[in-house]
Design a protein that fits this description.
This protein is 17% helix and 10% strand. With 82 residues, the protein is of the alpha+beta class. The strands form two sheets. The chain has a two-stranded antiparallel ribbon.
Length: 82
C-alpha cells in the first residue's frame, strides 16, 4: 500500500533557476520582435528579462503558458537553433 504522495514540498526541486544572475545578452529576434529583448537562459532554456546585463531571477522554465507562447518559442528555435 502506498501513501498516494510522490514527494513532499520539502523534497521538491527549488523552482528558482540557478542560471539567474548569469551574464547574458538579448537573444536574436524574430520579425515580430519575439523574444522582446529577453535573453535565453543556458540552464533552463527560458527567455528571461535582463537586469544590468545579467539574467533576472526567475523560476525554471516548465512550459509555456499559452499555445501562442509555445508557437512563438518553437518558431524562434526553428529560426535560431538550440
Amino acid at each position: 500500500m502506498g501513501t498516494g504522495l510522490m514527494w513532499s514540498e520539502r523534497d521538491a526541486d527549488d523552482p528558482r533557476c540557478p542560471g539567474a544572475r548569469t551574464p547574458a545578452a538579448p537573444a536574436a529576434t524574430l520579425p515580430d520582435g519575439f523574444p522582446d529583448g529577453r535573453a535565453l537562459c543556458p540552464v533552463c532554456w527560458a527567455f528571461v528579462p535582463l537586469e544590468d546585463g545579467r539574467l533576472a531571477p526567475h523560476d525554471t522554465w516548465r512550459g509555456d503558458a499559452t499555445r501562442e507562447d509555445a508557437d512563438r518559442r518553437r518558431d524562434w528555435f526553428n529560426a535560431h537553433g538550440w
